[in-house]
Design brief:
single chain; 14 strands; alpha+beta; 6-stranded mixed beta sheet; Deoxyribonuclease I, Chain A
Length: 320
Amino acid sequence: MNRRRGRARGAPGARRPGLLTAVPALLLAALLAFPGQLPDTPGHLGSLVETALPWFGAAVPVLLGWAALRRSVVGVAAALVPAVVWACQFLPGYLPGGDGARADFHVLTYNVGGDRTSPADIARQVTGTDADVVALEKVPASALPAYEKALGAAYPHHTTANTLGLWSRYPVSEVAPLDLGGAWPHAIRALIRTPGGDTVFYAVRLPSVRVRADAGFTVEARDRSAAELASRIGADRAARVVLLGDLNGSLRDRGLAPLARQLVSAQHDAGRGPGFTWPAAFPLVRIDHVLVRGLRATGATVLPDRLGSDHRPVLVGLRG
């Protein structure tokens, strides 16, 4: 009996119980701190991890609980390392954002979900936000006349291209649909005479992505379109630029880095919390964005979807 107890005490897991928690905890901390070091193959794994990165923090309570059950001080200390890294990465986003200044105008982006919603319902929700410039994505082409009629009274200026629409209280000019590659124009560029001065707007819906067993994270088409869009914005000489739309990805995703390097996220500067927008019923990731150059956000809010879209709308106040 004593010999068996001695062997049990001498087992590797019994001698170093902290290792069972310390090793995965430190690996998790490294992943949270340096996600860009993760290879993107196979299947664009790096992009997928970067998209889901905030949710990796859910592993911290599991590691802490396991270490506590093992009564391992080393394990608890190790589990606190990724907790601190996660907090440094994501907790600042939960602090109040914006500078409290009055906005010159408000913008809204909303993927209406195709046939999931009706033009009349969308028009009521959009006008209720008091937004001055509105980008709608995934608008069925057959429903565009109904959208134009429903929104016309509040937004006398508008332009559309395929499944995209840009509605404005202010005059719109220099309209150009942009072919970013793929089956439809993925963006509209337009100049709008906002209260703070002429501002170039891009209404955008980048190609969709999927997670497939045979191909992994299918971001190739989106990444190509994002790079083309970033190239066009980089060449745009406008001092004031606003991008509104569904980018089908988190700005942490390396595939959207060309855009993130040029434009500032309104959510980052003036939002509070993670700002997740998709899926609408239980948002897990932010793929609907307002990005700016030459302006600053005074506030950024993700609104509830009550109409059946799979996205939530985003409302942002802007000031020159």
